[in-house]
Amino acid sequence: MTIRNHIYFASDFHLGSFPKESSVLRERNIISWLDFIKSNAAELYLVGDIFDFWFEYATVVPKGYIRFLGKLAELADLGVKITLFKGNHDMWMFGYLEQELGATIISDELELSLNGNSFYIHHGDGLGPGDRKYKFLKKIFRSTACQWLFARLHPNLGIGIAQRWSKHSRAASNAEEKFLGEENEWLIQYGKELLTKKHYDYLIFGHRHFPYDIKLSDSTQVINLGEWINYSTYAVWDGEKLQLEKWNS
After folding, report:
1. Are 208 and 177 in contact (CB under 8 A)?
2. What distances in angstroms separate CA 104 from CA 76, 192, 235, 245, one per listed residue?
3. Of the N and C termini of the chain, which has fewer Cβ atoms inside 10 Å?
C-alpha cells in the first residue's frame, strides 16, 4: 500500500511564456517531476505564477497546458490535495480549477501547521519595502471593476494583449537572477519583519526567481522556491524537515 506522507511546494512555472517552444519543453519537464512525486505526495502547493497568463472568462480559459492540467487531474484523482496560489501573472483565477481539480485557490498568504511546525506561505509579490508602482497596479488588477472590464473584451483580443505583454516579462528574457545579499533581498527583509509579530518555523515564497534556503534564526528557515526556466527547484516536507531540491529529469 502506497504511503502518501510528503508535501511538495513549487512555483513560477510560467507556462505559456514566450517563446512557445521553451514553454512546451518546460511543461514536459514539470510533468516528469509530477510523475516522480505522485507515488508519495499527500499534498501539492503551487505557489503562484504557474501560468504566465491566466484569465477565466465565463465559458473560456486560455488554450494550452492540456498535459499539465491532465497530470494535475490524475494527481487529484489519486487523492493528492492541490492548492494553487494566485501570482502576479495568474491572479485572475476564479472557479474553474476548483471545479475541475477540486483545488483550493489562495489569493494571498496561507498559514499551516504540520506536525507542530508553523508555515507561512505567499507567492511574494507586493511584499517587503519598495516597488510602490506594482503594489498600486496590483490593487487595480485585483479589483472587481478591472476584472469585469477585462471580461468584456473578446478572448481573442484579451488573451492576445496578454501574450504580447508576456514577451517582455522576466520569464521571456530567460535571464538568471543573482542573490543580492540578505540586506537587499526584499522577501528576506519582509520575513524578518514578519517574525517580529509572530513566530514561524518556515517561510516559503516564490516570485523572486532565485532559489535560496536561509536560516533567519535558530528556529526559522526561509525558502524561495525559484523558478523552472533555469533552476527547476522545489521544496519537500517529509514530516520532519523542509528541504530545497533540484529536479533533474
Report:
1. yes
2. 11, 28, 19, 24
3. N
Alpha carbon distances (Å) from 172 to 59, 151, 188: 28, 25, 25
**Mean predicted confidence (pLDDT) in 68-76:** 97
Q: What is the DSSP string of 174-219?
A: TPPP----GGG-HHHHHHHHHHTTS--SEEEE-SSSS-EEEESSSS
Predicted local distance difference test score (pLDDT) of residue 215:
95
Mention every residue, 6+ apart, whose C-beta is less than 8 A from residue 161. Answer: 153
Say what the pLDDT of residue 160 is.
85
Instruction: Give the whole-angstrom CA distance, residue 227 versus residue 29.
Output: 12
Give pLDDT, residue 77.
96
Question: What string of H, E and C letters represents the secondary structure of 107-126?
Answer: CCCEEEEECCEEEEEECCCC
- For residues 16 and 172, give the distance between their C-alpha atoms in angstroms, rounded to a whole number: 10
